[in-house]
């Protein structure tokens, strides 16, 4: 989800100002207070009077989010699927290379009008590229040539590895003439960065 706000948080009888980040699978709190709350562990979620109230087995907390409290509660209680966040819908031309998640590949195959997991199809609406190492980023420029005018290229890379960092992925996309527009937690172990052509360079 990637929604970050600075707010006051009350927990354990104390109030502290911190940055709260609502991710796909967890809420991460950094600053004076440090917490990591898996969304799957939450037993109670409610919003009232600008406050988000959360309870989980080990503790509870109140986030003073103002007008964002209702939005956060809704997003926690009604999470979008990974497919929704990645723009996957029926009738698209989709290509995937080096994606190790076989269940995800099957999902792409079921949704696509045309699908290839061996090479990039010309005028692909979506291209998914798995990059486990720096070497995996070397083909981004060539793959980008197969994008439809308004198509999107997603680079899926591992979280927390020193060999391949977010900046490496951003540099690879930009060097291919693309602009980064979105980041999604692809899974517990991988992140996906979305790239598109600049509007001025789209043929259709």
How would you describe this structure in keywords?
single chain, about 200 residues, alpha+beta, PH-domain like, Rossmann fold, seven-stranded antiparallel sheet, six-stranded mixed sheet, 5 helices, 13 strands
Describe the 3D structure.
There is one protein chain. This protein is α+β, with helices and mostly antiparallel strands and 204 residues long. The chain has two domains: 3-77, Roll (PH-domain like); 82-201, Vaccinia Virus protein VP39 (Rossmann fold). Helix content is 19%, strand content 42%. It has helices at residues 69-77, 82-85, 102-111, 140-144, 166-175, and strands spanning 3-11, 14-22, 26-31, 35-38, 44-48, 51-56, 59-64, 93-97, 114-116, 124-130, 147-158, 179-185, 190-196. The chain has a seven-stranded antiparallel beta sheet, covered by helices on one side. The longest helix has 10 residues, at 102-111. The protein is elongated, with a radius of gyration of 19 Å.
